[in-house]
Amino acid sequence: MSISHMRVSRSLAACEGALLVVDASQGVEAQTLANVYLALENNLEIIPVLNKIDLPGAEPDRVAQEIEEIIGLDCSDAIRCSAKEGIGITEILDALVTKIPPPKDTSKDPLRALIFDSYYDPYRGVIVYFRVIDGSIKKGDKICFMANGKEYVADEIGVLSPNQMQVDELYAGEVGYLSASIRSVADARVGDTITHYSKKAASALPGYSEATPMVFCGLFPIDADQFEELREALEKLQLNDAALKFEPESSSAMGFGFRCGFLGLLHMEIVQERLEREYNLNLIITAPSVVYHVICADGETVECSNPSLLPEPGKRRSIEEPYVKIEMLTPKDYIGPIMELAQDRRGEFKEMNFITESRAKIIYELPLAEMVGDFFDQLKSRSKGYASMEYSLVGYRESQLVKLDIQINGDPVEALSTIVHRDKAYSVGRALTQKLKELIPRQMFRVPIQACIGTKVIASEALSAIRKDVLSKCYGGDITRKKKLLKKQAEGKKRMKAIGRVDVPQEAFMAVLKLEKEVL
User: Fold this and answer.
1) Rounded to an integer, what distance in angstroms lies between the CA atom of residue 379 and that of residue 377?
2) pLDDT at residue 357 above 50?
3) What is the pLDDT of residue 364?
4) 315 DSSP 8-state letter
5) Which of 48, 122, 134, 428 is close enough to 78 for a disulfide, judged by CB 3.0 to 4.6 Å?
């Protein structure tokens, strides 16, 4: 489950109703649809709102019909609004009061409160946002978090109006915050249940699950002196984001850095952006990879996210990779290019249906590894920005996966190793070797650049040697004299090749990593 999906689902579980806000010019998008279904599963009262009606391209009547056809909600009294122009705001507030049902009165039951968000405050520790489902909570109560069993004293409880305002007690149906000298966000995870220490609830609220990283990549500082700054920045981000995992990693090509785990693509992009913007770090980011399940010959299953840690071919029986179910909403004009994109990424077609006369929903199942590169960018460019997508994990499946190694002058370069599907190995290997040939400076000896699966070379390029013209001083004369000079030069080159090292410039690594993100 992605970080946004988990937060949305827990937030919806803390509500009685929701506003369905749809752009009057864009219409329903895939993520909106996914969140509406989550709201319907939670039996929420949904109030449709058509926003941005002041735009020249707004078509509120068409969008209202689209909502009725796709979701099945009655939009005859949908509120038409524009936040920019201040239209319809009063009607929305009135609808919230009249249409959303009141919470049930369960204040006499044992305390059960749902955590739907939390953040780290440098002075007070973790501040927890929660909704009281059953019972009541007072300032000074000794409380317990049911998932991890940790106990705290509620030093401060309050409500948001909109700033934090302290109160003495919160009852069933109320939403508030608490501060209890909690040191880490990991101790107050989204979805956990708060109960009283002395009078524990019989069962926790449903829906809690541990956040497990699904996408991994390496983060290396361009300037090696920034390594400690990168460590501090990641530690500070982790204070507010318990789902972020990282461990030190070293590479012969890029020096010291960190292997980081993320819940999904959006989570990865946000962390990278924050590191660069808020902490002024210049980073090299390796191509993202996913967690593979490697079934070894002895029957043991090993999780592997780093190609360099993949067990040898003789020690593994098979490799399983994560698959996702992807739903794409698109205008009918772009169905062909989008289906072609999904087929190219090893997608399995599941179904397609027209949700309106002009828009279709296409469902595919495809490997997560094929999505972590530029899939979203390609989807947007092939549909001129009109298509949208939503994905969810469906499990692991066995695939014909191999480790693709890059060797330069016979030495493997671990930083460029990747795990790819056997059918794509040749095209990826060919692209990488050709790019490296362009980027690595010529040496005094011939340098072979090879893409290998195990010991088998599947693609190869070579940098020709820089040669001195040893025949320039020969003005005619016997051919044996020329052969002797050329033979002597060849022996020198052979000696150089045996002892020579090829230093791959950092620009080459950055260019190849960028290429890997495109071709994988």
Assistant:
1) 5
2) yes
3) 92
4) G
5) 48
Delimit the domains of the chain by residue range: 3-99, 112-196, 215-286, 292-399, 403-519
Q: Is 53 a known ligand-binding residue? A: yes
> Looking at the domain 292-399, which fold is it?
Alpha-Beta Plaits (3.30.70)
Residues 287-295: what's their mean pLDDT? 83
Q: Which two tokens stand for residue 17?
A: 């109703």
Residues 295 and 306: their CA atoms lie apart, in Å, by: 16
By the 8 A CB rule, do 66 and 360 touch? no
C-alpha 175/C-alpha 137 separation (Å) is 11
What pLDDT, on the 0 to 100 scale, is given for residue 513? 62
Q: Is 168 annotated as a binding residue?
A: no
User: Binding site annotation covers 54?
Assistant: yes
- pLDDT-derived band at 506 (thresholds 50, 70, 90) equals low
* pLDDT of amino acid 208: 65
Could you report the per-residue pLDDT of 218-264, keeping only the tens digit for each?
A: 888 887 788 888 888 888 888 777 778 888 887 766 678 888 888 77
Alpha-carbon distance of 271 to 260, in angstroms, equals 10
46 is in an annotated binding site: no
Query: In whole angstroms, what is the distance from residue 232 CA to residue 323 CA?
Result: 34
